[in-house]
Amino acid sequence: MVKKVKTNQLRPGMFIHDINCGWLDHPFFGRAMDVNDDEMVEKIVNFGIREVYIDTDIGLDVDSAPTKEEADKAIMEEINKINEINFDDIKPVAVGREIIMAKKVRKEAMKTVQNVMNNIKMGTQIHKEEVEVVVNDIIISMLRNPNALMSMGMLRKTDEYLYQHSISVCALMVSFGKLLGFDSQLLKEIGLGAMLHDIGTMQVPQEIICKQNGLTESEYEQVKKHVLYGRNILEKTEGVTDMSIITAYQHHERLDGTGYPKGIKGDEISKTGRAIAIIDVYDALTTKRCFRNLIPPAEAIKMIFEWSETKFDRGMVKKFIKCIGIYPVGSLVRLESGLLAVVFDHSTDDILRPLVRVVYDTKKERIVMPYVLDLSKPSGKGGADRIVSYEPPEQWSIQPDAYL
Ligand SMILES: [Fe+2]
């Protein structure tokens, strides 16, 4: 019987029926083989192969693995779901409820993006359906409550930058697209383009991508090529629409023509190209990289607003700020009173005065029993408390998502 197993379930004595990655794109002899020893298992895992098919009539069996038929059925069910979903029917839920689902979506998305990027590194084709399933889950989560998934983007590991950046840009793009009035089909297409916008960086030498001390002119020219590489990859991928390709291809174009690869200006850049440019920069600025620290969201928003005189579409930047708020959900902020609080809702119209959950008192230097404070309403005699700064959560050992 043929079964699908995770590569970490592989043991010597099993027989691989199908290595489950592209023809000639792996260093193993043929697609079917005996698993001889642990070294071979390690080699397969290290090569980035996550799942293989084994034949239990020839080699050892694994109890908890689906048969090939069951695995194929599960894949088809997921793919079929894509067309059945009507995003208009999705009902909003509270952030606290959505956070559990959003965690799962993010975890799944991480696996998929890693897989896709590794495939590109090895010169293997992308399967659009694989990405589409994840983009769909992101759309659903963002429509139920955008704050859940977005708040998770704040807790990142530096070494996973590219994967997390891809997911966050996708999530923000979907949320922004909804605000701009895009329909379900368009959301799927721009979501896919956003998820894969930086895929071309896999074909740029990695030592340049993460270089600590600035780039030479020729290195920068190489980095710039990632948009071109990305377009080529997407064009070769079956079923990817022009809308997805253009969304990815234009993410470094700037309104004044100083961007790349084409240096086009103003309305020559598509609406989605102008939108993703803002999102890409916002997410890059607010994330810690190997070569620099993060910039607090409120500061990044100010910078982008300032740059929108020349680089970005100002009308669109205003809408984007409306979309995410000055203090995005999940931010840890210091209030004038000395309290530290986690922003957990900015559904009111006042983007400067969100709902927060107070978690720490810096004056008394102690944790407080969490309670909700609506900064748009007066509290006590002196009027409403107000946000004075953004605080890095790791500095206080506070995990903001625990308070959403
Ligand atoms: Fe890029």
Describe this entry's structure for a reader:
By secondary structure, the chain is of the alpha+beta class. The strands form two sheets. A five-stranded antiparallel beta sheet has the order 8-7-6-5-9, with no helix packed on it. β7 and β8 form a beta hairpin. α3 runs antiparallel to α4. The radius of gyration is 23 Å and the shape is globular. It starts with a strand and ends in an 8-residue tail after the last helix. About 1% of the residues have low confidence. Bound molecules: fe (ii) ion.
Measured by DSSP, the beta-strand proportion falls in 5-15%
DSSP helix count?
15
> What do we call the CATH topology of the largest domain?
Hypothetical protein af1432
Low-confidence runs? 22-26
Bound small molecules, by name, code or SMILES, are: fe (ii) ion
Condensed summary:
The protein is an alpha+beta fold. 45% of the residues lie in helices and 12% in strands.
What's the SSE blueprint?
Layout: E1 2-6, E2 15-18, E3 33-34, H1 38-46, E4 51-55, H2 68-84, H3 95-121, H4 128-144, H5 146-152, H6 161-179, H7 184-195, H8 206-209, H9 217-224, H10 226-236, H11 242-249, H12 271-285, H13 297-307, H14 314-324, E5 332-335, E6 339-345, E7 355-361, E8 366-374, E9 387-390, H15 393-396
Antiparallel strand pairs: 1-4, 2-3, 2-4, 5-6, 5-9, 6-7, 7-8
Helix pairs in contact: 2-4, 3-4, 3-5, 3-6, 4-5, 4-6, 4-7, 6-7, 6-12, 6-14, 7-11, 10-11, 12-13
Bound molecules: fe (ii) ion.
